[in-house]
Specification:
This protein has 427 residues and is α/β, with parallel strands linked by helices. Helices cover 44% and strands 15% of the residues. It binds S-adenosylmethionine (SAM).
Amino acid sequence: MRQRSLLPDNEVTFTSRSVKAVTFQGKLSRPIHRWYRLTPSFSPILAEDIARHFGLTEDDHVLDPFSGVGTVPLCMKYRRIGASSIEVNPYLHFVSAVKTRTYTDIEEIADCLGSFVREYRSFNRAPKDAADAQRLLREHEAFIPPIHKPLRWWSEGNLAQLACLRRLLLAYQAEPQHLDLLRMGVLGILVPVSNAKHNHVSLTFDDNPRPTVNIANVIAAKYREMTEDLRSVCAQTCSEVRVYHGNSKAASAVLHGGPKASAVITSPPYPNRFSYARETRPHLFFLNFVKNAEAVGQLETDSIGGTWGKATSVLAEGVAPLNRVVDSLLAPYTARFNGSGELMANYVTKYFNDMYSHAAEIDKVCRSKARLAYVIGNSKFYGHPLPSDEILAAIFAEFGFRLDGIDRMRKRQSKSGLYEAVVFLSR
Ligand SMILES: C[S@@+](CC[C@H](N)C(=O)[O-])C[C@H]1O[C@@H](n2cnc3c(N)ncnc32)[C@H](O)[C@@H]1O
């Protein structure tokens, strides 16, 4: 017998939503969700509202093919709804996987995090002055993350302490799950102690670099927050969720025979030239999720909407529409901005070619009856709007998914004509 929804109150609305109910800001005060801030990630409130709107129960299985920092699987886990997610970026996959595990040995975890901080304090010190920072930096030089221009990212004093932290962490011995939590905490502080500004979707550098701080105090506070969060959720019953590392353009192979989804709740990259590989490069390099810049270029090329570095050269070679459907959907738009250079037309064509391949895979991994919610933003190229939500809906129609509605949730910049929408589909 089909169960009643575990989520009370079916009356939720997806128009005129607050920033907190759509964006990453909804996770800043939420246990576990707050461990790592990915600005273009969505609010747990949104994921929960969609689940409530769909009336999901324990009989359902939710798929998020663009996991990011794991907002959807984490929300489903504590609502006892089974879920799987897929993420192509190895660092974001790590974040999703670590956040969605079930931890029961909280006091052992607290001991491990505490011992690590004590060892770090005995090994590290905050530099007294600029000369001291340079001395420390030389001492830990071999452990500076192999990112381009590291001193743009961190002051000498902070970089020296981070290199020391990296040195300790790379050799540290602990239970694998505890080690992952140690790594998670360190990755969570890299941007907060950097010179990057946080208030833009894309990271930019502050003109006034952030001063040197005592990194041991920062990491100790992060581990306290993580332990507090684990204690606050540990008594709750939850479902097991699974996060896969892979490409959602090959979702059926990645999920290889896992449960079919009755619902998809997701947010793909928007066609706005935002690069997740670029944004996460300090993390990708800090704990060796990638070997070199070439691997980051490959990640960007594999990602939907990839446009940075090597991915741009791929676009410059020219991109033909995958088929007649993509061609006819895009022609009215690409013709308008083609005159300003072919690169953008190629970018948009590649983006929707990829979304078409993705939709073909969603067709395979969903149950015969399924409901989909795709959160997506529109774009503008050379002043010409591109209604990504409508184009996406038309692509899914090719695979038998009926459009139930497009709710425009919020404007992205007032008067720019940019908005974020949720596209509801079903079959
Ligand atoms: C808008 S974000 C998702 C954010 C997520 N809803 C959250 O709250 O964290 C889009 C994600 O899709 C990932 N991605 C891009 N192309 C992908 C692909 N081909 N397969 C799987 N993941 C991909 C990006 O790395 C990024 O993490």
